[in-house]
Amino acid sequence: MAETPHAARRPRPLSPYVTIYHWPVTMATSIVHRIAGCGLAAGLVVLTWWLTAVSLGGVAEFNALASTPLGQVVLFGLTWCLAYHLLNGIRHLAWDLGYGFSKPAAARNSVLVILGSILLAIAIFAAAYTGHGGYYAGVYG
Amino acid sequence: MSLETPLHKVEGLGPAHSGVKHFWRQRVSATALVPLSIWLGVSLLGLVGGSQADMAAFLQTPLNAGLLAAFILIAVYHMVLGLQVIIDDYIYVNWQKLLSMFAMWAFALAVVAVCLFDLLRIAG
């Protein structure tokens, strides 16, 4: 089989690639599910950190660090990751039971999951900022 | 005509030899994590701004300690299953794959060890 020299090769038609591919919303929810999962893996560091602070001391320092703008951004990011991965995970489990497979349903549920997760994360932070969090203080023990 | 042997067919595992084990374990852990995550969210919001005494008292309740232990164990297990798929998908150089799997397991076991130690220490 004779090899065609590289320079003489005619440019071949390329199949659609991600950069020019039309992104359906379902594609976004799929990849974001993965990214949110990775975010939650990193979130386990924060959870372990907090639990160690409760156990060995350092809760005041943890609270102070969490109250900084960077701390709040990180915590909001983790809250949203959990909200998203939870809602989209429920969508995945519904798929496994055979529901929501039609194209319109998949697209509609994708939008619902994205909006729902943002609203849920904002609602949790709004509750904390308006003094509706911390309801377990003084309840136990 | 099928080229499968009768034994292979009845095992129903296909060429991967492991069947749906990974898929099934991911779904079972995911199902358990739905109520556990909601419980964790409600609990953490209830402890926002609390003191160490508040948090320790909350975690000294057997139910809360047990639920947090369950969350951590199942979440770490679910994380291992998920990260394994990500490593399988994107990392194809053998030593890099080996290193990633090693790092993932080290992280997973470290989280479990530290968290369980913390919970026991808080309880005691």
Which characteristics define this entry?
heterodimer; A: 141 residues; mainly alpha; 4 helices; 0% strand; B: 124 residues; 3 helical TM bundles of succinate and fumarate reductases; 5 helices
Helix-strand blueprint:
The complex is a heterodimer of chains A (141) and B (124).
Chain A: H1 25-56, H2 59-67, H3 69-96, H4 103-129
Helix pairs in contact in A: 1-3, 1-4, 3-4
Chain B: H1 6-11, H2 21-47, H3 52-60, H4 62-90, H5 94-123
Helix pairs in contact in B: 2-4, 4-5
Give a concise summary:
By secondary structure, chain A is mostly helical.
Description:
The complex is a heterodimer of chains A (141) and B (124). Chain A is mainly alpha-helical and 141 residues long. Chain A has helices spanning 25-56, 59-67, 69-96, 103-129. In chain A, 22% of the residues are buried. The mean pLDDT of chain A is 91. By secondary structure, chain B is mainly α. Chain B has a single domain, classed as 3 helical TM bundles of succinate and fumarate reductases, CATH 1.20.1300. Chain B has 5 helices and no strands. The termini of chain B are far apart. Classes of the chains: A mainly alpha (141), B mainly alpha (124). At the A-B interface, helix 1, helix 2, helix 3 and helix 4 of A face helix 2, helix 3, helix 4 and helix 5 of B.
